[in-house]
Design a protein that fits this description.
Number of strands of chain A: 8
Order of helices and strands of chain A: HHHHEHEHEHEHHEHEHEHEH
Strand content of chain B: 15-25%
Number of helices of chain A: 13
Radius of gyration of chain B: 19 Å
Number of strands of chain B: 10
Strand content of chain A: 5-15%
Structural class of chain B: alpha/beta
Oligomer: heterodimer
Largest sheet of chain B: 5 strands, parallel
CATH class of chain A: Alpha Beta
Helix content of chain B: 40-55%
Number of helices of chain B: 10
Largest interface: A-B, 8 and 12 residues
Structural class of chain A: alpha/beta
CATH class of chain B: Alpha Beta
CATH architecture of chain A: Alpha-Beta Barrel
Number of domains of chain B: 1
CATH superfamily of chain A: Aldolase class I
Helix content of chain A: 40-55%
Shape of chain A: globular
Shape of chain B: globular
CATH architecture of chain B: 3-Layer(aba) Sandwich
Number of domains of chain A: 1
Distance between the termini of chain B: 81 Å
CATH topology of chain B: Aldehyde Dehydrogenase, Chain A, domain 1
Radius of gyration of chain A: 19 Å
């Protein structure tokens, strides 16, 4: 399945693919040389994995894991500092009535809200993720995108969610997209030499085909993205099981080729606990259990958390819970 | 050449749609003489859960309609039932073993009951609400407001008149209902659901589950997102009613307790069934502003 690593060297992914990323033509040649995705087969496989029955202790484990994987997100024009503070508090203690309930992985906000979120989260272990690079459309000049990124990193963001230029990608200017990701990754560097993690958003709802999703995945991984993310949540369809499956195949193949692990983040449209568990089954079956960790798989979601908490409460109390017992956010 | 039978699949009614039971189970329904009539869907606890979600979703819109509009919609149900007389009469005859004329009479009473409750939609406030005299320059007005999502265990014997006498008073004030039909006699409830689906009742306002109340009711009674429960359908089973009342106490549900035995629904129902599922809201408003 993965392209034969003829140019493999010990220098890591960037070195390994230096031939590929040398020119637009070689990059196009490589991306279009990736095996095509059987769309009907991918849909059927994802649907089949979605029918797995996860019950009792396995379900309890899956629910807690899913909560730990949530990037609790608020990306609205109407966001206020108060709302972000409330959301950050919720991320640390999703269910205040139950101390055994784990914290979420991160809070995902616009760059101007990073400082506010950081203030509340402190060193709780919950990360702050910021969407940057003219989110959600990505329609801005490169230096504006880079400034956007640097601002967010300076304000204390642990993770940057960038959007790719879909216009450039769809018109085949792959090298431009590649170089933009590389540039944003460099902008993620902090003065102390460390670096914010970079998640690359494809907006798969605009990429039209699974083949494009696979190509975008390889492109982002070769450019050094730490995570590949399906969607902004602003475009329908957002994350779907088959799209996520194609991306999970890509990260699996990338590790086989380079030895490097890249994370996956479906975002948008995952609303029920059942959906979340379907995704976890997919992760385990397609990428492998190594990815069943908040460092390597995340859910970009807002309403999902309450659903997970309701299911968790149902598991512990034996009775159905209701939205009245969890915060509105 | 003989024609192939087109047999009907009796399904649940949840959120305005007619799904099969999530469990995939069905059960055999017999007529009053023990002959096979149909296979009805056997609702599971997950169907009940889905129905509660649908009812909760429909609550805001239904409670927010004007009382006058709710009256119109209830009256519309009566109109549609009138249209479907033969089917409803047949269902009642089969279920309750009544003669044709007796079944017709039950249907008349059922439709009249619905019209009677429809009339109450914009009148209950005048009867149970009040302008309270207070020691200050305020208007002080108490009005009944719907309680929320109400679980209704419909009567086991009276399959149509009893069902309507249990459901109409719940929804007329703006509540939404999750109804568990009679176990032995579910078919009139299924036909009633088809009337609801074609009579301007928004999806989710009434959800009808056919199945065994004794297995579904505990989940509804303990459900934290159900605001009230009517135990009519388990009248006579004191052990079950007690356990349901205990479970309902967890989130302080309003409970309409089960009578010792199923009442005679042909008599004047009074206001109790409506006032059991309303909350009194009192508003203070300064005079002269």
């Amino acid at each position: 399945m993965p392209p034969s690593p003829t140019t493999a060297t010990a220098e890591g992914a960037a070195g390994q693919f230096s031939d590929v990323t040398r020119s637009d033509a070689s990059l196009r040649g490589f991306l279009h040389g990736l095996p095509g995705v059987d769309q009907v087969g991918a849909d059927a496989r994802a649907a089949a994995l979605g029918t797995r029955s996860i019950k009792t202790t396995a379900k309890a484990y899956a629910l807690d894991l899913a909560i730990r994987m949530v990037d609790l997100t608020t990306l609205e024009g109407q966001d206020t500092h108060g709302k972000v503070r409330a959301l950050a508090a919720k991320a640390m203690r999703p269910d205040p009535s139950d101390p055994t309930c784990p914290a979420t992985a991160a809070v995902c906000v616009y760059p101007d809200m990073v400082a506010t979120a950081k203030e509340v989260l402190g060193d709780s272990g919950v990360h702050v993720a910021a969407v940057a690079t003219a989110f959600p459309s990505g329609r801005a000049a490169l230096d504006i995108k880079l400034a956007d990124t640097r601002d967010a990193v300076e304000a204390g963001a642990d993770e940057i969610d960038m959007v790719i230029d879909r216009g450039a990608f769809l018109s085949g200017r792959y090298l431009q997209v590649f170089e933009e990701i590389v540039a944003v990754r460099e902008a993620c560097a902090r003065p102390d030499g460390s670096s914010a993690h970079l998640k690359v958003i494809f907006e798969t709802g605009e990429l039209q085909t699974y083949d494009n999703v696979r190509r975008a995945s390889w492109l982002a991984m070769m450019a050094g993205g730490h995570f590949i993310k399906t969607s902004t949540g602003k475009v329908q369809p957002a994350a779907t099981l088959p799209v996520t499956m194609v991306m999970l195949q890509a990260v699996r193949d990338f590790r086989e080729t380079t030895g490097q692990m890249v994370g996956v983040k479906p975002a948008g449209g995952i609303r029920t606990a059942k959906d979340a568990i379907k995704y976890l089954v997919l992760v385990n079956e397609v990428a492998g259990p190594d990815w069943l960790d908040p460092d390597w798989f995340r859910f970009g979601a807002s309403t999902l958390l309450n659903e997970l908490l309701m299911q968790r409460t149902k598991m512990t109390t034996g009775r159905y819970s209701g939205p009245d017992y969890f915060t509105l956010d | 050449m003989s024609r192939v039978d087109v047999r009907k699949t009796y399904k649940l009614f949840i959120g305005g749609a007619f799904p099969r039971s999530e469990s995939g189970y069905s059960y055999v329904v017999h007529d009053s003489k023990g002959a096979f009539v149909a296979n009805a869907a056997l609702a599971s606890r997950k169907d009940a859960r889905d129905a509660v979600v649908a009812a909760r979703k429909a609550f805001g819109g239904w409670a927010g309609k004007t009382a006058y509009n709710r009256a119109q919609i209830l009256y519309r149900i009566a109109e549609i039932m009138e249209d479907r007389r033969p089917q409803l009469v047949q269902a009642v005859r089969q279920s309750e073993g009544l003669s044709g004329s007796r079944a017709e009479k039950v249907l008349d009473e059922s439709i009249d009951r619905l019209v009677w409750y429809a009339g109450w939609a914009d009148k209950l406030t005048q009867v149970v609400g009040n302008a309270n005299p207070v020691a200050g320059p305020f208007f002080n007005l108490s009005t009944p407001e719907p309680t929320g999502v109400v679980a209704v265990l419909a009567p086991q014997e009276s399959s149509l008149l009893g069902l309507i006498s249990a459901v109409a008073p719940v929804i007329v004030t703006g509540n939404t209902a999750v109804v568990v039909s009679s176990y032995q006699r579910p078919l009139p409830a299924v036909t009633f659901a088809e009337c609801l689906a074609t009579s301007d009742v928004p999806g989710g306002v009434v959800n009808i589950l056919t199945g065994d109340a004794s297995t579904i009711a505990p989940w509804l009674a303990s459900h934290m997102d159900v605001n009230a429960i009517d135990l009519l359908g388990v009248a006579g089973d004191t052990e079950l009613t007690t356990s349901l009342e205990v479970a309902a106490a967890d989130n302080l549900k309003r409970v309409r307790r089960a009578p010792a035995a199923e009442p005679d629904f042909a008599t004047d129902p009074g206001l109790d069934a409506m006032t059991a599922f309303v909350e009194t809201k009192t508003v203070w408003h300064p005079i002269g502003v």
